[in-house]
Amino acid sequence: MGPARDEKRHFHELELANFIPPDICEAQLDRLLYQIYLILKSNEKVLKGGHVTLLKLIEKRYPNLRMRNGILYGCRGDPADKEYDGDQYDNIFLNNNAVKKIENPQEAVPVSEILSEAFPTPSRIPKASTSPDSLGSSPKSRKSSISSINNVPFSFFAPLKVPLDSTAESILQICAANKHDKGVGIVEEIRADEIPFQPKPCRAKVDCLNPKVPLIHVRSYEEAMSPEVKNLCLENSIAMVRGLPSTLGIDSSVFTTKTILELAAKDDLELREQWFMPTRTNVDDDGSQTWRFHSFICRSDVKTYAEYQGLSFESIVCEASRFLVNQSEVKVKTEPKSEVNSDDEVDDNGVRKKRRKLATNGTKRNGVLKDKIYFGTNVDFSTQKFYRQVNELQKLPGFCRLKDENNFMSHLGFDLRGMNTAQFYMKMPGCRTPAHLENNSFCSVNLNAGPGDCEWFGVSYEYFPLMDAMCKERKIDFLNSSWWPDYDDLMNAGIPVYRFTQKPGDIVWVSGGCVHWVEAIGWCNNIAWNVGPQSVFQYKMNLISSEWNRIHKYPSLVPMQYLSWQIAKEMRIADRELYDLIKGNLIRSYAYCRHVLDYVDSRDDLYLYDWDEDVDSSVSHCCKCTAEVFNILFVKPTVDDQGRQLYDTYCVKCVKAEHDPSLEVWQCYKLERLAETLDNFKLFC
Fold this sequence. Notes:
Shape: elongated
CATH topology of the largest domain: Jelly Rolls
Structural class: alpha+beta
Low-confidence stretches: 96-149, 332-346
Number of domains: 2
CATH architecture of the largest domain: Sandwich
Largest sheet: 10 strands, mixed
CATH class of the largest domain: Mainly Beta
Strand order of the largest sheet: 3-4-5-14-11-16-9-8-6-7
Distance between the termini: 61 Å
Radius of gyration: 28 Å
Helix content: 25-40%
Mean pLDDT: 84
């Protein structure tokens, strides 16, 4: 039984894993020694004592091993010029010739064809057949004579009954004339639990279950800023770009553990307590292969984890040195427990003395689950003290920049930590990020600051409903549970899986809807954030994710109604299809606001208050069903155990079901203000 989630872990409570057991397999040992070599070779000029000894032992074991620009060449069995794990990549070099096109792992199904069911094209939107004047004038008062209004949930997928060029005034007139219509004359009725969208994975090439990840090599500033890099990333479910930090002059030293420790030693740090397991292994307490993954949340601080991360490396230096010395002396496979693990042997790094400060690791549940490790997550770069780190990230090309005028997330208007702010992750070998979709299926950017490598797994968006079904078969919640898919299960199901190694300086681009999971091979720090490229595919995936979340009662971090209004106010949209999608949702949202206000008017026990625009919170979610609550908030004051005043927010659908007279109703934006945004939103030419 672990500590409570809010319990803070101190240094002496962190357990230190034994990474090199006597029965370690050769492949696992090689993988670990390569990561040690990366760090030792990078610091060769300042090495002393046991570090020098271990470097010589590793070089003796792998005579062809070399390192160039943080990348290994000439590993066991490879020629001296072959990159470590180089066969995982589809290498793309940008030059004056035509850019190489990427072949998808399955027969390409056009995005427009896959998503067209959910989103009507302009040709399917009806033309205006009724003059606004024929529908009667807009009511002068908000008072309504109706006693009840149908319980209509808001949906991005409800087909429109009105043309996209409708004005705000005409929409209000149609609403006034159709108060008893379930769609208030604006949208057609749609089931609350239905998404008219099912991805269609094409199995014409199921023999290609191990596709190579596109690796885009950037060798100059001009190449880095060229549209080809952006287009190649956007065209693929997952891709990797190599060379951006070096060609753009990004100072990687600002992302070291030492630098972050100097800035934020006392900052809280979320820890994930996990079991150290061999690659592609994920077992339960009984030693059986499972999809469930133990990743227990607790807390510490940056200083504590920095010490732990450093000590774990020093400890493995001692383990590796003793193991290699013993192996070279014996020259046969044995289990020299007394020599390898002797606590009486004093190493020249003083690790034995430090280890005594840590909790004893080794609650042996089975042959695999015996050593715990800790993953330091979510050091947020949103505060001013991290300005150097943010400035370095702003050197990246616009499409993957943290802040950019063409990035949907830059127009949200408030910080969503880890999404439109960058976050820092501190890892050691075996630390895992379980399988997940990015919040609201936004794209993500992940920079490996090194010095070690990470292994990535990715599945294209076409397959996420199938993976959801496989989770349900195993009684795992796709959105809420911590899970690590079994690689062989995915192969047997015919699901192509990208599997590749992210080296220091590499940037992984994850497109919307791509399910992915990551394991640290060595000691490394990563920086990650989300972006929203101004594209039709991105916006559609955002809407699909929002509806998926609502149906599964999972809160969407990004409020898509609110964001759509922000985009209309602040961005110039030149793509006709994207413009039509956004304009359609503004019409749905505007009409729904009118519908909710009519409901408030129909109840004598509710009073409408105007929201103070100086109060920084007009975005909320229903505390009961988790749906986004936009503009009109139904609020109920509560008091927590400490006597603090809190407020629960409800959506109109849940309010109608309860009919609670103690609710307060707050309107954030006047309809006139929304009308101005709606009418002024034009296609940019």
